[in-house]
Design brief:
Layout (H helix, E strand, L loop, with lengths): L1 H13 L2 H12 L24 H8 L2 E6 L2 E7 L6 E7 L4 H19 L4 E7 L4 H10 L7 H10 L1 H5 L4 H11 L4 H8 L2 H18 L6 E4 L2 E4 L4 H10 L2
Parallel strand pairs: 3-4
Antiparallel strand pairs: 1-2, 2-4, 3-5, 5-6
Amino acid sequence: MRGLRRLAIALVVIGAAALALMLVGGRDAVQATNQPSAPAEAQAPATAAVETEQQAAAKTLQVTAVPVPGMSDDMVLGNPDAPVTLIEYSSLTCPHCAAFHRTTLPQITKEWIETGKAKLVYRDFPLDGIALGGAMLARCVPTERYFGFLETLFQTQQQWAYSKNPMAALQNLAGLAGLGQDKFQACLSDQKVMADIKAKQKAGADEYKIESTPTFVIDGKLIVGNQPYEVFAEALKAAQ
């Protein structure tokens, strides 16, 4: 199967027992129906991309790591004291998640986050081992660059996640973020980071019954899938 071949490639590239555990665990975390569909043609490994509006905003907006008792910090985009909270559960290999970041999040950012009316809390919900590896790498970049790196992964998703060698393509992107080979391998071997991501994923499934990505929580209510901006705007207004 295509998914198994991708995992095998990742194991060869990294060659570490810790990563093997990561890949198997990430694959077992969700149902097979949540797996993303590969594009018709494989694309070359990602190197660089034209900066999007959302990537630029992610670099200029405040980014805060907010402690969560017993878990990894929540990564918050915007004013951490903003009155309305939008929680996003996404997987870095999920095409619908990438579509949200390309088409819907920029307007939410402009109308709600940049204005201080709302903040975005991003929580990883990896659907496979490749997504888990990307989530672990994002946790290794400096806090202020976290959302910028995250946006790069979503904007170039088809290039790295569906390439013939996704982990090598991911390593290229990590290098652009300042993570050399040693740091890259150390990040993917960090058992604590892996456990923290999986623990938060399980907590989301237990508390909010998250079953697919992307799923959003606003004032305790769920929005499932990449819905039009108007759906989010209505929910955000109701939460004010």
